[in-house]
C-alpha cells in the first residue's frame, strides 16, 4: 500500500502546528524590558533558517540525481502526469538561473507584470448573505497604460488558428528557497494571528514591506473562497479535495524561464481542455513559495501553440471565464475588452508557474 494516503475531504493544508522553538520565542516577547533578548532571538531565528536552507541546498546539490520526497509523492499519486517544469524548478531552486533580459521595454524601463490582474491577487468582497464579487487588484495607476496590460486579456473568438495575439510573458520569478519540504513548511506559522511568530522565525522586521506583503497574502489565504498551499503535497491534496477526485492533471504553459518579449504571436494550434470548471493556482509573493488557489467558476480552458518573431513555438494555457456577472464593473478586463459584467467571456493566458487543475474524468467521459 502506498505510504501517501489522501483522505477525501480532509483539508490538511489548513492545519499548521507551532514549532516548540516558536512558542519559546513568543513567551520571551512578553517579558518587560527585553529589547536585547528580542533582537538576539530574531538573529538566532534568522541564522537557524539560513543554516537550514543552506544545508538543504547543499544536500540537493550533492544528491541532485535523487528525487525529493515531494517528487516521489507526485509520482505516486499522479503517475500519469509529468511534473511540470515550473514546479520542478521550485523543488530544486539551486538550479534556477533566471535572467530578466526580457523584462524591459525598448527604452530599458521595467515592464509592468500584466498578470497581476489575473486571479488572486484579484480580491473578493462579501455580503451578509455570503455572496461575493470579483474585484480587480486595486484602482488603475498612472502606470496602467503600459502596453503590457493590454496583453493580459483577449476575446475567446481570437483563439483561432491563423489569428494573431499580442502577448507578453515576464520572466519566472526567482525563489531562493523554492517550495519547502512539507515538514519544514508545516512548522512555520501560517495565519494572520500568528504573523508575529512567523516574522520572528524568519527574521523579518514587522514594519517592513515584506511583512506587509505577508499579511496581505495571509488575509487572502483566510478567505473562504481561496485555499493556500505551502508545499507540493498540500497543493495536490487541496486540488483533489476541491475537484472531488484523485484523477486530475495540471495544465500549465511551457515557457522559457527568461520569459518572452511583448510582440505579436501567431496561433498555430488550439486544443480544448475538457471540463467546464477548474481550479487555478497562482504563485504568490512570500518569503518562500506558496500557491493561492481558487475555483475558476464556469469557464473553458485551452492549450494554444503560438509562434513569435523568433519562430520559436511554445504551448501556453489559456482560461476563458464564461460568467463574469459577479465581477466588479470596474475590473480592467471590461475596459480592455469593451464588455461589461455578464457579457462576452474574458480570456487570459497563464504565465510561467501558474496552473489550472483539470478533472480527468471530464476527458474520459467526453
From TrEMBL:
Q: Which residues form the BURP domain?
A: 153-360
Give the originating organism: Urochloa decumbens
This chain belongs to the protein called BURP domain-containing protein
Q: Name one Pfam family in it.
A: BURP
Amino acid at each position: 500500500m502506498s505510504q501517501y494516503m489522501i483522505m477525501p475531504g480532509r483539508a490538511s493544508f489548513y492545519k499548521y502546528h507551532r514549532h516548540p522553538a516558536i512558542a519559546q520565542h513568543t513567551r520571551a516577547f512578553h517579558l518587560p524590558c527585553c529589547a536585547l533578548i528580542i533582537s538576539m532571538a530574531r538573529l538566532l531565528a534568522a541564522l537557524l533558517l539560513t543554516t537550514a536552507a543552506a544545508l538543504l541546498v547543499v544536500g540537493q546539490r550533492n544528491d541532485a540525481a535523487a528525487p525529493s520526497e515531494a517528487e516521489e509523492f507526485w509520482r505516486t499519486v499522479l503517475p500519469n502526469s509529468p511534473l511540470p517544469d515550473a514546479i520542478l524548478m521550485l523543488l530544486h531552486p539551486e538550479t534556477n538561473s533566471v535572467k530578466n533580459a526580457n523584462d524591459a521595454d525598448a527604452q530599458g524601463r521595467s515592464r509592468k507584470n500584466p498578470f497581476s490582474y489575473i486571479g488572486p491577487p484579484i480580491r473578493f468582497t462579501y455580503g451578509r448573505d455570503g455572496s461575493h464579487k470579483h474585484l480587480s487588484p486595486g484602482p488603475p495607476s498612472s502606470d496602467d497604460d503600459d502596453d503590457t496590460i493590454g496583453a493580459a486579456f483577449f476575446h475567446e473568438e481570437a483563439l483561432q488558428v491563423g489569428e494573431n495575439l499580442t502577448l507578453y510573458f515576464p520572466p519566472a520569478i526567482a525563489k531562493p528557497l523554492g517550495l519547502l519540504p512539507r515538514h519544514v513548511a508545516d512548522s512555520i506559522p501560517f495565519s494572520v494571528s500568528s504573523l508575529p511568530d512567523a516574522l520572528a522565525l524568519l527574521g523579518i522586521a514587522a514594519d517592513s514591506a515584506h511583512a506587509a506583503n505577508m499579511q496581505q497574502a495571509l488575509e487572502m489565504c483566510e478567505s473562504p473562497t481561496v485555499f493556500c498551499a505551502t508545499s507540493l503535497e498540500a497543493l495536490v491534496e487541496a486540488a483533489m479535495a476541491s475537484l472531488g477526485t484523485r484523477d486530475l492533471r495540471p495544465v500549465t504553459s511551457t515557457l522559457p524561464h527568461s520569459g518572452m518579449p511583448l510582440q505579436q504571436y501567431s496561433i498555430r494550434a488550439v486544443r480544448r481542455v475538457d471540463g467546464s470548471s477548474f481550479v487555478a493556482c497562482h504563485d504568490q509573493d512570500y518569503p518562500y513559495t506558496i500557491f493561492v488557489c481558487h475555483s475558476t467558476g464556469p469557464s473553458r480552458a485551452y492549450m494554444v501553440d503560438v509562434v513569435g518573431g523568433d519562430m520559436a513555438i511554445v504551448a501556453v494555457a489559456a482560461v476563458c471565464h464564461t460568467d463574469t456577472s459577479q465581477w466588479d464593473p470596474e475590473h480592467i478586463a471590461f475596459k480592455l475588452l469593451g464588455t461589461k459584467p455578464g457579457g462576452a467571456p474574458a480570456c487570459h493566458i497563464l504565465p510561467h508557474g501558474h496552473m489550472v487543475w483539470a478533472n480527468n474524468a471530464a476527458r474520459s467521459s467526453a
